[in-house]
Amino acid sequence: MPLTLPSILAIALYAGGAALLAAPLTGCPRSPRRLGLATATVAVLLHAAVLLGAHGGRLDLHFFAALSLVACVVAALTLLVNLSRPVAGLGVIVFPLAALLLALDVFLAPPTVPRPMDWQIQLHVVIALLAYSVLSIAAVLALLLAVQERALRARRPGMLVRALPPLTQTEALLFRLIGAGFALLTLTLLSGFLFIANIRAQHLVHTTVLSVVAWLIFGALLWGRWRHGWRGRSAVNLTLIGMAVLGLAFFGSKFVLEVILQRTMG
């Protein structure tokens, strides 16, 4: 397989980048953060090249290909987030997952042929991909926020808590990501209603309904933050619930149809 070498290199670099970012968690006196981010950047570029080569430069929305694509975008956005807010913990979680999903797509998934799509559908897919990716990062950050808050309440801050930004900064970044993801999810739903002609024929009823439910959850969370100052455990729980619903919307039906029932989605 011609993509074996770049895939292995990307997987190794993802692992190396995560290990370098995790160094402060082991008490390393000098943080190799920049080297870790640079290593992960090369991994993301290789990952993107593998996706282009494996799927002919076209959007492939089959289950494993879509997972790998989302992982690549999430990893790239994680790098961007770290440019403005040094949250190394994000990379420690995201980059190994990106390596795993890339390996599944390249080495274990059956070969697939991308379906042709009009530009309107491609635009809808790109917006949906960005919405899912941004909210995925928010969900990972919510997990880190929960760990951080629990450790501070117990007055036992470990290496992980010391490596994270102050709690207020982490929380502010979380809601910025949720706000951006909510706006993109709104555009996703609007473009879907405008551009997708027959939702039922394309097995998208469950996806649409669950996406609307997730939109309502994230909308309620943002409203509660604005109106009542929701934070802490409430924010974490609603973020994770909303992301779980959105994950089912994006990949639940696809997994059942393509992996379990061996059918394709429209």
Automatic annotation (TrEMBL):
Residues 41-260 form the Cytochrome c assembly protein domain. GO terms for molecular function: heme binding. Keywords: Membrane, Transmembrane, Transmembrane helix. GO terms for biological process: cytochrome complex assembly. It holds the Pfam family Cytochrom_C_asm. It comes from the Bacteria. GO terms for cellular component: plasma membrane. The keyword Membrane applies. The chain crosses the membrane at residues 6-23, 35-55, 61-80, 87-109, 121-147, 173-197, 203-223, 235-257. This is Inner membrane protein YpjD. It comes from Rhodanobacter sp. FW102-FHT14D07. The lineage of its organism: Bacteria, Pseudomonadati, Pseudomonadota, Gammaproteobacteria, Lysobacterales.
